[in-house]
Specification:
The complex is a heterodimer of chains A (137) and B (120).
Chain A: H1 7-29, H2 33-54, H3 57-74, H4 82-111
Helix pairs in contact in A: 1-2, 1-4, 2-3, 3-4
Chain B: E1 4-8, H1 12-24, E2 28-33, H2 36-46, E3 50-54, H3 62-72, E4 78-82, H4 87-96, E5 100-103, H5 108-119
Parallel strand pairs in B: 1-2, 1-3, 3-4, 4-5
Helix pairs in contact in B: 2-3, 3-4
The chains are: A mainly alpha (137), B alpha/beta (120).
Chain lengths: 137, 120
């Protein structure tokens, strides 16, 4: 499948979704509640799906981890706090950077990656995430 | 006469990719929906042979849209589109009436195999 033909559309759409993600996280920071949370979750989910569709495995994994984290909040397993907001914003920043790297590399770089690790059994939510460590397990 | 498809995903990028795969195989894309509510409305209007449905969308998610469509049109043929880590949601979608699912990244051959299974 010739993925490079979708790169322009991928770029513009991920930019839109990243803006929406950051906007909703900032709303969450200022007490945005469920609406902001749902929008952030959907943005992370859509970014994950688009990255996976392009074969950008690293981007998809970062988006997946962010989606999982947001889902923990939605499910009431994690409370929104200053520390959690900072973590979410840092994850969104990392997602944006990974996406820029992936786009610069083009679909060939993504396609040349190893067999996607997410095809194996579901992972447990990230419990010891740090912005300076890899999300790969 | 080509078989008709309604493509439902809130990302233009995803709709374009799925549509291209199906068009190249001779399907006619008769509609595109960005939300679950729009998917239900367009199904009523268009009565497509096949629906491709993303699991998570704004204004009624994919699974609720499947339930709504199936309650009115029990013969509807819906193919769910999922990404990593959505096994539970895929199962829920199938229990709601979706016939099969495809996973991103889309490999055209696998997409078309799933479509053939759904259409019978």
């Amino acid at each position: 499948m010739q993925l490079d033909r979708y790169l322009g559309l991928y770029l513009s759409e991920t930019q839109d979704r990243l803006r929406a993600l950051n906007r909703s996280l900032l709303e969450l920071e200022t007490g945005g509640g469920d609406a902001a949370l749902d929008e952030a979750f959907r943005a992370a989910h859509t970014l994950k799906g688009m990255a996976a569709a392009m074969g950008f495995q690293a981007v998809a994994e970062v988006a997946h981890a962010l989606e999982d984290r947001l889902d923990e909040i939605r499910a009431g397993r994690l409370a929104v706090s200053r520390a959690v907001i900072d973590e979410l914003l840092a994850r969104a920043d990392r997602l944006e950077r990974e996406n820029e790297v992936a786009i610069a590399g083009g679909p060939e770089g993504g396609a040349a990656a190893a067999v996607p690790s997410w095809r194996s059994p579901p992972r447990s939510p990230v419990s010891d995430w740090s912005p300076r460590t890899s999300s790969r397990r | 006469m080509g078989r008709t498809v309604l493509v439902c995903d809130d990302a233009i990028f995803m709709r374009a990719m799925i549509s291209d795969i199906l068009k190249q195989a001779g399907f006619e894309i008769v509609g595109e929906a960005e939300t679950g509510a729009e998917a239900v409305r367009l199904y009523r209007e268009l009565r497509p042979d096949l629906v491709t449905m993303d699991i998570i969308m704004p204004d009624m998610g994919g699974i609720d849209a499947v339930r709504a469509i199936m309650s009115e049109f029990p013969d509807a043929k819906i193919l769910m589109c999922s990404a990593m880590g959505q096994q539970a949601l895929v199962i829920e979608a199938v229990q709601a009436g979706a016939r099969d699912f495809i996973v991103k990244p889309f490999q055209p051959s696998r997409v078309l195999e799933a479509v053939q299974r759904v259409l019978g």
